[in-house]
User: Fold these one by one.
Assistant:
Number 1:
Amino acid sequence: MNEKFFDLKKEKQDRMLGAAFKAFATAGYAHASTDDIVRDANVSKGLLFHYFESKLGLYIFLYDYAVKFEQLEIASCVGKNETDYFVMRAQRLKAQTNCMRVYPYLPAFLDRADREEDRSASAAVGAQIIAHAEASKEFYARADLTLFRPEADVAMVGRMLTGAFRLTLWDVLRMENVRAPEEYYRACAEYLNMMRQLCYLPERDTEREVEA
């Protein structure tokens, strides 16, 4: 990647990155079209490949950029001493919605990339994918699991919520509504509060419902 990309006006950078996030998120690496990217970004293909030498080079840059952008938002939204599992998930959701206000398809891109089937693309960002997953695992490791009922399988709860959030994310993105981030957070907050009521011990629940 040509570092001079960051010398472009921020508005043009964001157009190019936003279009690329959308293309890879919706179509996957193999079927994402650079023609679609340059059309949506309103730039020439020559300009795109001037800064990113290849489609794969663009993809590698996007993954690194997306993770760093997300991490900055998480750092600003998540309380360092928070241990309530559902509040922690809500704070990460808030970080995602902040990302979406700048790049609507950034969270969807990361989710799709972590499950990418194209071998060349997945191999190119394999180390970053592992690091991203480990960072998430480490984040939730500090959650206070004594709040859960003994019969609750926390890992299964996490998988269920992740699946529900993924479906919700695509539902709101298909609406192409400027309020998509808010709608995404609101719907996911309802899932969090429902699972909280089902999974926490009544005597240990601090009644900190997630604000929808």
Number 2:
Amino acid sequence: MAKIKLTKTELKAQTDALKRFQRFLPMLQLKKQQLQSEIAQISAKADAVAAKEREKREAMQHWVGLLATGKELLEGLVTINDIKTGQSNIAGVAIPTFESIDANVKEIDVWATPAWIDDATRMSIEVLTLQSERKVYEEQRRLVSAELETTSQRVNLFEKVKIPECKEAIRVIKIAIGDEQTAAVTRGKIAKSRVPEEDVA
């Protein structure tokens, strides 16, 4: 704890600081709980999207034999030009929200390619869309987790450092002021007891 002045002014400053910390602490604790809840929800959404992505990939497995013969057809068949996102706010944290992907489909000769290429294109777009959505959820989780870490540090700072320091400072100052007042009263009594003796002399 930093050195404190043992004065009434410092006592007021420490008392005001304590009130301020005690007022902000519940808000920080509430924000911490809210962020923890949001992370759980984001994780659940990310897991659900990842499960759908796995299902789509598994559904594509029956094409494996076909893909072996048409591998050159599939290379670069679908590419992502852009992931379109919006923005939202969670407990004061700006996060991206998934909207859609801008996919580029390679031009192919429909007469010279097998019929399954249309299904492969559609499924590739669906998988890439789910993959992009999952990545946006992962970014949301990263941003909210970083804010949770900062908020948790502030809660710990207030709970374990600032509030105890203020309480200890107030205790020390009150003792010092009390001792000073007692000494002043004692000095007053001594001075008062000396006055009659001087008058008698």
